[in-house]
Every structure is written in structure tokens, then in C-alpha cells.
Amino acid sequence: MRRRRFLRVGTAAGAAGLAGCISNGGGGTRPPPRKSAVFQTITVDDGALAVELEPDPWVNSRAEVNTSPALALAPPIGVAAADKGDSRGVGATGRGSGGWISAPKRRGHAIYHGYDDDDWREDHRDQVKQYDAVPVTVGLGYIGTAAAYSDDPPEVGRLEQGWDQTWSDPEAGQELTMSFEQPGWYRVGTELQSESGDHNFGWESVDFQVEQAGEGYDVEKPWKISPRV
Fold this sequence. Notes:
This protein is mainly beta and 229 residues long. It is 10% helix and 39% strand. The protein contains four helices and ten strands, in the order αββαββαβαβββββ. Strands 1, 2, 3, 4, 5, 6, 7, 8, 9 and 10 form a ten-stranded mixed beta sheet that branches.
């Protein structure tokens, strides 16, 4: 039996570091990917993919969302510290340019549209707030072979061709499983709304490759796919 884990979160501090995206480069006007915490682990074991949801999901947003006093907002985010090593420089501008190897990374997962620069977050720190979030839909689906993914990776959001399996109103922290029959690239995505139910934050996703390893399979090359904040 083989069981490959990534996106592991042990503490609140670990969750913040794991969920963070590297900000947009060069002090440009385009905002960076938003920060979030929605997936805790993704594993492959005995012919099944298993996704464990974050028990306390949250997302950063510039939207003005109504919350009750019990759902007080966290302080505005400050400067997002960029990792060393592979995340230095301008990073990848897209998953089809340079691929997973050259993309900026944070704790093992790559960041789509990630850059090693914090100017935008610093300039807009008073506009971005952290909100508690609720997963209303989770989708898991096959994208294609490595060649197909490299040639035409899907954009942010739900899969255009549809999900292989969906779950409605899953519980926070729940583990969701789906059988799979072939290696290749997959996406797991979660549609989020505010706990008050009056705002939809859209989709947070992770793309990952399932590769054969001996008699089993491994989960490799995770991409965190987030809308811009």
C-alpha cells in the first residue's frame, strides 16, 4: 500500500504559511493570487483519491462581506513573505510557461501566477481582509495526460468539461474520496461562500499529477490555483 500526502497542516501558523500565495511581481497593478486555506491533504491509496478539507476554512478578499460579531474579521494581511530558492525571480507567468519545475513554490506546492514581490500587498494591505468561508460545492475531475496539461492547462475556477464527481454542502474537515482508473493530471476545486451566506467567493483549486510508482501511485507536482485577490 502506498499513501502519498501533501498540503499537510499541523498548526494555525502552518496553515497560514501553507495557504499563502506569493504576491504579484514588479509592483505592478495586477493583484496577486489570494490567500486561502481550504484543502488539508490529498492522498492516493488503493485505487482511490482522497481529499481532506480544511476544518476551519478561510479566504482573503477585498469584497465587503457582512458578518455577525461572532465572525469578526482578522486584521488586514501584511507583507507576504516570499520563499527562497525556486520562488526567487519573476517566477512562472502561467502553468504552460516553464512548467511546475520553474514555478514559484511555497512548502512544496507551486503557485499559479505567483511572483517573488510584495509591493502590491503592502500597497493594498488595508483593503484585504480574511473571512471565514464555507465550502458549498467540491468537485474532483480528471484533466488529461501530462502532455495535454502542458499544452492547454485549465484556467482558474471549475473545470470547463465538468467534474467527474461533486459533493454538495460537505462538512468542514470531511474526507472525500473518488476512485480513479488512470494516471495523469487532476483538479480538486471548492466553491466558497461566506458563513453568513450572503457572498460567494468563487472557486479555490489545486491541480496535481498522479504518477505510477512501483505497484502503486504517487501524488506529485501540486499547483495551487487561486483567483486574484
